Amino acid sequence: MRDQGAVLEDVRQGMIPAHIYNDDEIFALERERVFGRSWLFLAHESEIPRPGDYVVRRVVDDSFIVSRDESGVVRAMFNMCLHRGMQVCRAEMGNASHFRCPYHGWSYKNDGRLVGLPFHGEAYGGEEGFRKKGQALLPAPSLDTYNGLIFVSLDPAAPPLREYLGDFAFYLDFYTQQSPEGIELVGPQRWRVKANWKIGAENFAGDSYHTPHTHSSVVEIGLFREPKASKRKEGALYWAGRGGGTTYKLPPGTLDERLRYVGYPDEMIARMRATWSDAHLAMVGDDGFMVSAASVFPNLSLVHNWPKVENTDSDEVVPFISLRQWQPVAADETEVLSWFAVDRGAPERFKELSYKAYLMCFGSTGMFEQDDVENWVSITSTAAGSMARRLRLNSRMGLLADDKPVSPPLAHFSGPGVAHVGFGEHNQRAMLRAWADALEAPPPAVGTVDLGSGDLGGLEQGTRP
Amino acid sequence: MTAPSPRTVARCLSFGDPRHLEAHQFLVDEAALLDTQDYDTWMSLLTADVRYLMPVRVSTARGAGFDTAPGMAHFDEDHYSLSRRVARFATEHAWTEDPPSRLRHHVGNVRTFPLDHTEDEIVVESAVLLFRSRGDVREPSLISAGREDVLRRDPTRAAPSAGHWMLARRTVSVDESVLRTQNLAIFL
């Protein structure tokens, strides 16, 4: 394997060797050092509300059953029978008290415990030959939640999720905690695109510069008024902790007026007022910034827009929230998982319209997303060749030659982290710095599990609702 | 609009029935419009109350009682949202279809079913296989789906289609859980 030191050094200067967007060696390192260590989003608790509910999700190549067991604890279990390695669950979702392996019939309770082992006595000599007691499907090495978002890490020594997220957690609240009830997450739509996973993550983290051009068509058809360049450059870009995002500058007004401007009904505004911190309320009400796209390193993105979804003469708009994951498949392929999120306590009519807004804008059919993916597929395919190894892409927007910012960070910004107004690639650089740091660090130490002896300790993990 | 009642082989119209022939011709004519991305003409074949739905399919255990993602679809459209999609393709900035994909909608397995309560609507089932090629050497994509349509006869007899049928409802049952195409900037 080549020494990637020079690549990482370039990336830290904001000069991006183009081949990192389609390079098998880089991808092998990412698999080990980014996805083998980071906290990765798997599911939201609202997707598995009842005991026995489960969804099956992946971390790169590893399949996990995310289930709620009979006592209400959320678990993520490696979907591989302890005996011969068969997937014990081959559905994507459902409700089950047990998972039974189709190969030899070993069965597991929905908390992962091995409870059925045909001919245990005759074949193994009972507990003496094979200790069934205490065996369980391998739990995800680390599991933690924030606002009901279930994350796992393959690193058993991962820091607590909240510590990993750092101040980005503040911004997650805008998307996932608009009331004490939190969100319900619907979906996902899943599709595979021939694009490198980093491109989407970088784009959502801070590429306000692409919006006026890539998405000019959605303004032309009257779907969304904000992407005009004149408006987009007034927004703030913030980076905090392990993530960052873009905002739009709202027209002058009070907090309520500004939340109404993006389409929230008064009863939802009242709940936001009662739920969010003073700093959240000040960022919208005083500073006038409303969150739009964002990414958490490495591959979870969020978006919040407010298009016009009905054929009326009024300018009435409806906001929607989407979560999406850029699940790597290969250096040149990504599976997009795109969910619709809405506050659980929102009025039914709002939920319907917000869902419609989501479908029109993002996801497999979304009119924003369609044009994004076309660009990302093209970049990825072009990045594969030898010329791409000679080209360092300039990702220094917002920086002068001496690394001083084109415009200084905002002196007053109510949210945590560092914020800049205007176009700049501050956040894309921050994402790739986190990426370079992860690639440089040696892979986390992991142990192996021998079956049939000892306690896997799996039942200690999980989270209560 | 409620879902049509379960259909049986016995209720399927004879392939020589004029209604079946009109329905079949409607689908083939429509496929030509979709292949050439003549969306203005296509929109003229949709009723004002059209519903165009393509649920997200999921793998579930046999007996689970569902095979679509609850509450989520790829398309869940009405006339207005379809009109915005079509209007977008007509702008100069719909990059995903510029250059346009080469499209071929292969339509088959057409069966037509009368409804008891009206002669002005018929139910048509079909299979569609969409071949989509973009650029020169990119892997083409295939989307296979079943469709269940409700066609309604245009009361004004103005619709430019065989028998003046219009599409009032379409449910597209796509045959993959995870789509292998870069987006659905196409219609099925």
Textual characterization of the structure:
- The complex is a heterodimer of chains A (465) and B (188).
- Chain A is an alpha+beta fold.
- Chain A folds into two domains: 40-145, Rieske Iron-sulfur Protein (3-layer Sandwich), CATH 2.102.10; 167-440, Naphthalene 1,2-dioxygenase Alpha Subunit, Chain A, domain 1, CATH 3.90.380.10.
- Chain A contains 15 helices and 20 strands.
- Mean pLDDT of chain A is 94; it is low at 454-460.
- Chain B has 188 residues and is an alpha+beta fold.
- Chain B has a single domain, classed as Nuclear Transport Factor 2, Chain: A, CATH 3.10.450.50.
- Chain B is 18% helix and 38% strand.
- Chain B has helices spanning 18-35, 39-43, 79-89, and strands at 46-57, 68-77, 102-114, 121-133, 141-153, 165-174.
- In chain B, strand 4 (121-133) and strand 5 form a beta hairpin.
- The chains are: A alpha+beta (465), B alpha+beta (188).
- Chains A and B meet through strand 6, strand 12, helix 8, strand 18 and helix 13 of A and strand 2 and helix 3 of B.
Structural topology:
The complex is a heterodimer of chains A (465) and B (188).
Chain A: H1 5-12, E1 15-17, H2 24-33, E2 40-44, E3 53-59, E4 62-68, E5 74-78, E6 93-95, E7 98-100, E8 107-109, E9 114-116, H3 120-124, E10 142-146, E11 149-153, H4 161-165, H5 168-176, E12 183-193, H6 197-206, H7 211-214, H8 216-220, H9 229-232, E13 236-240, E14 243-249, H10 255-261, H11 266-275, H12 278-285, E15 289-296, E16 300-305, E17 320-330, E18 333-343, H13 348-361, H14 369-382, E19 392-394, E20 418-421, H15 426-440
Antiparallel strand pairs in A: 1-19, 2-11, 3-4, 3-6, 4-5, 7-8, 8-9, 10-11, 12-18, 13-14, 13-20, 14-15, 15-16, 16-17, 17-18
Chain B: H1 18-35, H2 39-43, E1 46-57, E2 68-77, H3 79-89, E3 102-114, E4 121-133, E5 141-153, E6 165-174
Parallel strand pairs in B: 1-6
Antiparallel strand pairs in B: 1-2, 3-4, 4-5, 5-6
